[in-house]
Design brief:
alpha/beta, nine-stranded mixed beta sheet, two-stranded antiparallel sheet, 15 helices
Length: 337
């Protein structure tokens, strides 16, 4: 059963907002177009709004484009328990959304944290998710080292940001007093035209006693982000807080345990990868990209966009739209219907 959602303050023309019931609660979604279902899953710290440029492009190409607020975000359910944000719950939400929309199958596309959510949706439910598109964060099968142990070793004398996010309340205390300024700094720090120059202290490592935002650079918004866009994002997080979104990071060890049976497994559906060559995700995980012939044996195409940062579908919306539409239209009929 679905119900209309309150109108958004930054609507996409001709898009429809509604909320659908899933076994884990309620998922707010924004949809446009008709045809084969394409489910769009955002990352941190974002929203359905991160896909505002893709919804009309995919609809115009003959697809039913649906961008969700991931649980913990926007107008979707926000469970209190930390373990309610484990990967299995996000996969179940995606399955529930497909069913609530009256579809049997969907193509799933994710960005940032949405990328592993999309990848695991395809891995765990190949009967429903017939193709998968991954933006910014490459697919890497579950490894043999507990994630928090691996992250603890990355920073050396400094703390890796994922480790910094682990303690409930710690990052919230940094972000929530001035959500808008923090978001602006975080978005700018990973955007090609505003990120710190090469050789400066890395954004994602926190010295002892410092905050993540201590290394944010300047107050210039990236070219893809307007003041109105930032207002929309900030209003969402000022209303909901950051605990739900941060709880995704606090489940990396639970995910590692939950997904043990799938350790090392490839994704065998048709796939697509799009990353930016200035995005730390593509450099940190360069080995994962090199392993695609094994881990994504049905990879249709892989693209690293020159001069692009982390927010690929917002930084380079026209190029990403073209790549997504070309890929979707190349899929076998059974994979996109």
């Amino acid at each position: 059963m679905s119900q209309p959602a309150p109108s958004a303050s930054a609507p996409v023309p001709d898009a429809k907002h509604r909320s659908v019931e899933v076994p884990g609660g309620r998922i707010h979604l924004v949809e446009q177009g008709s045809g084969p279902l394409v489910l769009l899953v955002h990352g941190f710290p974002e929203s359905w709004y991160s896909w505002r440029k893709q919804l009309p492009a995919l609809a115009a190409a003959g697809f039913h484009a649906v961008a969700i607020d991931v649980r913990g975000y926007g107008r979707s359910s926000k469970p209190h328990e930390v373990d309610a944000y484990r990967m299995l719950a996000h996969v179940a939400d995606n399955v529930g959304v497909v069913g609530a929309l009256g579809a049997e199958m969907a193509v799933v596309v994710g960005h940032d944290w949405g990328s592993p959510i999309a990848a695991n949706s395809a891995l765990l439910r190949p009967d429903i998710f017939t193709a998968v598109g991954l933006l910014s964060v490459p697919y890497a099968p579950r490894g043999g080292v507990r994630p928090t142990d691996a992250f603890a070793r990355i920073g050396g004398s400094e703390e890796f940001y994922v480790s910094y996010f682990q303690e409930p309340g710690r990052a919230e205390a940094e972000i929530e007093p001035n959500v808008r300024a923090w978001l602006a700094g975080f978005y700018a720090g990973l955007s090609a035209d505003t990120m710190p120059p090469a050789g400066e202290d890395p954004l994602f490592f926190v010295p002892e006693g410092a905050k993540l935002s201590d290394r944010f650079v300047g107050d210039t918004l990236p070219s893809w982000l307007t003041e109105a866009d930032l207002d929309f994002y900030a209003a969402e997080f000022e209303r909901t807080g950051l605990t739900g979104p941060l709880n995704r990071y606090r489940n990396v060890d639970r995910d590692w345990e939950d997904l043990a049976v799938w350790g090392g497994s490839p994704i065998t559906q048709p796939s697509l990868f799009i990353g930016g060559d200035l995005d730390p995700s593509t450099t940190w995980m360069a080995d994962a990209i090199k392993a695609y012939p094994t881990t994504l044996p049905r990879l249709v195409s892989s693209h690293t966009l020159e001069g692009c940062g982390h927010w690929v579908q917002q930084e380079r919306s026209d190029e990403v739209n073209r790549l997504l539409v070309d890929w979707l239209q190349s899929l076998p009929a059974h994979a996109s219907s």
